[in-house]
Amino acid sequence: MICDTGKELAYIRLVRRLHIYNPIPSKHGVWEDTGTATKNIPIERIIEDPFFKRSEQSYFIQLADFCAYALLRKERPVPSKTEYGLDRAFELLKPILVLEASPRDPEGVIRP
């Protein structure tokens, strides 16, 4: 896992906590095996603390930042950015996004 610099300690603590406690809500309302709305499914595939890299040194982090910014400008357009078409940038990204990440959200966004 590669993250942008700036919140290193918070991300390390989060990943370590998710190895122990990671409550996942059921997409059907309740989990069949437990009858509860959430189930603890600790992460298993992140085996090391995140690596940190400044975003200006990583095309991957820049792309992730742009995707987030494009969604922000779509949902909260501002005239100074709309004149450049940034309010429509998220729509242009849809062919490469995993919209199934959140079936309940029309944009496929996992929201808190």
Which key terms come to mind for this protein?
112 residues, alpha+beta, 2 domains, two-stranded parallel ribbon, two-stranded antiparallel ribbon, 33% helix
Layout of SSEs?
Layout: E1 2-4, H1 8-18, E2 23-25, E3 38-40, E4 51-53, H2 59-75, H3 79-82, H4 89-93
Parallel strand pairs: 1-4
Antiparallel strand pairs: 2-3
Written overview of the protein:
It is a single chain. The protein is built from 4 helices and 4 strands; from the N terminus they run βαβββααα. It has helices spanning 8-18, 59-75, 79-82, 89-93, and strands at 2-4, 23-25, 38-40, 51-53. By secondary structure, it is an alpha+beta fold. It is flat. Helices cover 33% and strands 11% of the residues. The model has no long low-confidence stretch (mean pLDDT 92). The relative contact order is 0.13. The longest helix is centred in the middle third of the chain and has 17 residues, at 59-75. The strands form 2 sheets. Strands 1-4 form a two-stranded parallel ribbon. It folds into 2 domains: 1-53, no CATH class; 56-112, no CATH class.
> How many distinct beta strands?
4
- The rough form would be described as flat
Structural class of the helices, strands and pairings? Answer: alpha+beta
Q: Please state the CA-atom Rg, rounded to the nearest Å.
A: 17 Å
Question: Into which percent range does the helicity of residues fall?
Answer: 25-40%
The overall average pLDDT, rounded, is 92
Summarize the structure.
The protein is of the alpha+beta class. Helix content is 33%, strand content 11%. It has four helices and four strands.
